[in-house]
Write a structure and sequence with these properties.
2,3-Dihydroxybiphenyl 1,2-Dioxygenase, domain 1; four-stranded mixed sheet; 8 strands
Length: 166
């Protein structure tokens, strides 16, 4: 006897449903940090992830940017260059240390400079201003919020940077 349309609509497949992943389950076996972040408070709401600081920030730059980045961030601003991990070196770019944090200059194929978003660096503002202007960079002083001593400058790729008095 041929199947009718109601037979087809009523047909049920004998397929196990996909396993559901709970928020507190690790996405990668053994990743205890994910399990920690998924713990719940006594009221049932998920607890916040235990973020304790900022490891690094990244600004984008065009392919072939490395020497200009070294000249600006390394020699002019005095940041210490640190080696990129071997698996990432072929991507281009260069990394620097700024105190306990890092500044990564990463290559972006369809590069567009960040005009508003910016890293905020802390240093001796007056000495940095002298060095930047002597090197031909235009600096813009900014005293907002009241009491702040800071300036803005653009790196060789057009990305905005903020320098605050340390």
């Amino acid at each position: 006897m041929p199947a009718t349309s109601s037979d087809v609509e009523d047909a049920k497949l004998d397929v196990d449903p996909p396993p559901r992943r709970l928020r507190c389950q690790a996405r990668v076996a053994g990743d205890e940090r994910v399990l920690e972040a998924g713990r719940h408070r006594s009221d049932g709401r998920p607890s916040r992830a235990p973020i304790i600081g900022i490891d690094h920030i990244q600004v984008a730059a065009p392919r072939g940017c490395e020497e200009e980045a070294r000249a600006f961030h390394g020699r002019l601003l005095g940041l210490e260059e640190i080696p990129k991990p071997e698996p990432l070196r072929s991507r281009g770019g260069v990394w620097f240390r700024a105190g306990e944090q890092e500044l990564h200059v990463g290559v972006e194929e369809r590069f567009s400079p960040a005009r508003k978003a910016h890293p905020g660096l802390a240093d001796g503002l007056d000495a940095v201003r002298v060095a930047l202007t002597a090197a031909g960079h235009e600096v813009a002083d900014d005293d907002l919020p009241p009491g702040a001593r800071r300036l803005h400058v653009h790196d060789p790729f057009g990305n905005r940077l903020e320098i605050r008095d340390a």
